[in-house]
Design brief:
The longest helix is centred in the last third of the chain and has 20 residues. The chain has 327 residues and is an alpha/beta fold. Helices cover 36% and strands 17% of the residues. The protein has two domains: 204 residues, 3-Layer(aba) Sandwich (Rossmann fold), CATH 3.40.50; 94 residues, no CATH class. The chain has an eight-stranded mixed sheet, with helices on both faces. The radius of gyration is 19 Å and the shape is globular.
Amino acid sequence: MSLLPVRRLDDPFFPVTPATHQGMLDRPGGHAIHWEVAGNPDGVPVMICHGGPGGANAPARRRFYDPAVFRIVQFDQRGCGLSRPTGLLEGNSLQATIGDMEALRAMLGIGRWMVAGGSWGSTVALAYAQAHPEACLGINLTCMWLCRAKDIDWWFHGVRSMFPELWEAFASLVPAEQRGDMRAAYVKVILGEDRAAADAAAHQLHLYENGFMRFDAPLEEYDPARGARYGRIFAHYARHDFFVRDTQLLDQAGRVAHLPVELVVGRYDCCCTPDNSFDLTQRLPLANLTVVPGGGHSSSEVAMSQAVARAPLRLLSRITAKGGPTV
């Protein structure tokens, strides 16, 4: 007797179908980008950008997209996941990632696609759309992060107002006289020569972020090795202001003002605070913002999941209403 997986009655997710194609794409600077495609090969293409910087693609992110409707493209950003070499910082930037996405689009023979992402993935998706609006059908963003100076300062300092004990543990590795600039202190150690100190700091940074990203306890144990990899790439991007100017993503919003945009954010998102999504919406006449009462940062938690799962099909219906996708 076979047993079917147990699902909640209010489960909004689509089934996670296996990848139909995957491979490695060689890129300049010695990088090779891992990519995979799932869903309907004749469906509407959507590129999903993962979070971080330093995160990785996960098949589970496909559960927000109907595999009968969408041709789902995912990839690991430079130095991340299955992309090679692991952790390579040279030639690793947001602009390089945008170039990788364009190379993938050309390789897969896609004319235009939806672009999507959450958290850092929203930064990547929006920056790509602003660089290549002609390649985009629409934009689906969850927990937008604009990488303004104030957003970065919130991440490294402001979180203390909501999670003081978590921040104090984060600050414990930094001498008291250096705690006025936690970003500089962590970047110096993580990218320094002392590998034991670097790994400890990267581990602590990863624990810190995970502490305020979820309201519910995670379902799996923390992997210390992942923390070291994640923290090193994150620190590299933090050193370079995440490769965007202070208000760049708002200043260039006009480049995608003609595109339909869906944004979802939790009212109590303590990682990418709701003003990020709200301020972007103010610049985009075709943007629809959903603020989820009781929601935090994690899309998989009950409060957020239904709103996040509804957004892609709602965006597609808006694209179709404009005359239908041309892929």
